[in-house]
Amino acid sequence: MSASPSVSVPGAAPRVGVWLIGARGSVATTVVAGCAALTAGLHTPTGMLTETPLFAGSGLPPLTSLVFGGHDTTDCPLPKRAEALAAGGVLPHGLPAAVGAELAAADREIRPGGPLPGETRTPDELVAAFTADLQDFVRRRGLARAVVVHVASTEPAPTGTAPPPSSLYAAAALRAGCPYVNFTPSTGLDHPALAAPAQSAGVPHAGRDGKTGQTLLRSVLGPMFAQRALTVRAWSGTNLLGGGDGAALADPAAAAAKNAGKERVVTDTLGTAPEGRTHIDDVPALGDWKTAWDHIAFDGFLGTRMVLQTTWQGCDSALAAPLVLDLARLLARAHEAGLTGPLPELAFYFKDPAGEAPSALGEQYAALAAFARRLRAGARETTAPGTAHGTPEDR
């Protein structure tokens, strides 16, 4: 993970880029620091399905092969950002110093994003600049491929026809021939102007808005009520969070984009829309920590009225980082295998999956397990270096 040009080592795994949009944010910093900690043997890969027996032999790129870079509109260096996260209890004490070289190397690969204040470049010029940055990263670091993962703060849903910033980054990923993941509720690849380019780009892409906490729980509880034939009358939720995400979601339009995914999971898993809404409150003092409450009113036998209440308290960055690493590796492997277009098999990770996919977590896990078996079969069929591990028809 050094900043020097890559040197080919016989027998070494091809190097794979992970290009993070919002590369100096809490999630991205935790991703880079976490990957360095895992490869150094400082911590175990808790929360990473790609490091479990489920994906053994699937041909995923090893963590040691990942090279990080990205775009951001802020200039706080990653080592300094990591120190702030450690002070807040997000990263383990002492970890920023232990992986300082890796953080600094990734920081040197971060390029200015946009639009910046007073921006004079047109959307097309921004996309061209972002594309050039990606292509330069791949070429200069000698990468087999790079996966673009959007982890920037949530933006409001667009109100006009102009593509929002997240869609400009998505367009750049397509032009550069890079697999794409949108881990946020922002528009990204879902803008109408990108429908045709996404279809013709020949790269895999996966979902929108990572499922890390409250919605993860909802995707389990919703099917439980439906399968037990219990009538849910109302489902209300409240989120308290701080940090950059809390500040971004203080904007009602951004919060609406976030809440839409949370409420959609309830409706999809129950088969009906119960009463109740989800609310998000910005509490700066909480920093990267989040508390989510759910109040579920339901009817049992003979109309007996009952209530289930849940409380989820977690750290957003620590919940998201292992999923981002999973998805980067899975998209890189899918790209290597020649898979293109949406990957509904990865619905397990998203509030809003790509393509046609089930909403219940159990069914999503079954689809993910089948995907792992397919990748494993393709890896066994490899007969020579560079041989594809499958074709789009294999899906």
UniProtKB/TrEMBL annotation:
Signal peptide: none annotated. It comes from the Bacteria. Gene3D superfamilies: Dihydrodipicolinate Reductase, domain 2 (3.30.360.10), NAD(P)-binding Rossmann-like Domain (3.40.50.720). Residues 213-317 form the Myo-inositol-1-phosphate synthase GAPDH-like domain. Belongs to the myo-inositol 1-phosphate synthase family. This is Inositol-3-phosphate synthase. It comes from Streptomyces heilongjiangensis.
